[in-house]
Write a structure and sequence with these properties.
With 163 residues, the protein is mainly α. The protein is built from six helices and no strands.
């Protein structure tokens, strides 16, 4: 097995996931950022994205410093704009990607997760996919269901066909 190729594939999987999340954010109408899933804790779509960004930043900080970070909390009175979320999602995606590269080269190691970088990545993908499902449900329940070209071709097609 070509370990270098495997490292490229693992890094590429994270990049693809982040592209899918950025695509989703782009396709959500502005009103959709305020959608909340029925019977939920009250986290709207914007807060869901903010949460994902905080989790990404928090883990990278913890893995690299060993300390718990101080991260900005979501302010319901002044929620982030779509542009702010997009920048933060892109930046946090790069931070995760950089940490992944270092860990795959043996230069860094995740804390917890048995020290296994692929296990940590699987956790991140699972966590973000869970919240993506909550976002999609909130949009649907708010009458803002995304068109099939986005929900199927865009989100799934980017994985399956690579486009």
């Amino acid at each position: 097995m070509d370990v270098g190729n495997l490292a490229d594939q693992v890094g590429g999987a994270w990049q693809r996931h982040n592209e899918v999340m950025l695509y989703l954010l782009d396709e959500i109408p502005s009103a959709g950022l305020k959608a909340v899933p029925a019977n939920s804790r009250g986290r709207d779509v914007a807060a869901q994205f903010h949460h994902l960004i905080r989790v990404r930043e928090g883990w990278v900080h913890y893995h690299t410093t060993g300390r718990r970070p101080t991260l900005e909390r979501f302010d319901k009175a002044k929620p982030p704009t779509k542009a702010q979320l997009k920048k933060a999602l892109r930046d946090s995606g790069k931070s995760v990607g950089t940490f992944l590269e270092r860990a795959l080269r043996g230069e860094a190691k995740p804390r917890m997760f048995g020290g296994q970088v692929v296990r940590w990545l699987a956790y991140l993908l699972e966590h973000e996919s869970h919240h993506r499902g909550q976002m999609m449900l909130a949009l649907k329940q708010a009458g803002l269901r995304l068109p099939e070209r986005v929900a199927v071709d865009g989100l799934w097609g980017k994985w399956i066909r690579g486009k």
